[in-house]
Amino acid sequence: MRIQHTGAYAASTGIPSQRARARSRRGRILRDLRERGGRGPRALTFAAGDLVVVSGLPGSGKSTLMKRAAGDSGIDSQDTRERWEARMPRLLPYAVYRPLVRIAHYAGLRRVLRSGASVIVHDCGTQSWVRAWLAREARRRGRALHLLLLDVTPDTAREGQHARGRGVSAYAFARHRRAVGRLLRAAESGSLPHGCASVTLLDRDAADSLRRIGFREAA
């Protein structure tokens, strides 16, 4: 794999940085923005019509990042859950209506994808079929799929769950750790997930530095 040191990323992402570090293989790019002490880019910009997936452990900061940086382009399952929670009796466990929330989330995502809009999608990392679905949609459009992967320690993720007052079971968290761990190891070895044109690795500092994830206007 060829290592590139450049002052600006390729046109498909347009990330300005004096210390940009990227590795390219057969046109697929890994960008590692970790361990830069918050001196990362303030914006990630992708081509119009592209699709972006934000993955990471529960509590890693995916929803926080999307609320701050994705704007109207963000599709977050957490938003769907909160809308349903507001309508349900307070004593009704989420597990009872979780399947309905998931159906509503994916139905909404399908509608947005069919519109042809550029989309930034929250993904827990364990649902590989979601990335496969988005990769097929990107190919159908003749556009690209990009993965933003948050790399935080399990302890940091658990602290994030505690801070939001919403945790996951030990079993579910172990599943997430395995899935996200596989994604990280594959990316670091240069094997990007199937269908992804690029992977951008973010630690907590890099994610906190981002103020915008967006798309260029169509020509």
UniProtKB/TrEMBL annotation:
Residues 1-26 are annotated as: Disordered. Keywords: ATP-binding, Nucleotide-binding. GO terms for molecular function: ATP binding. Signal peptide: none annotated. This is ATP-binding protein.
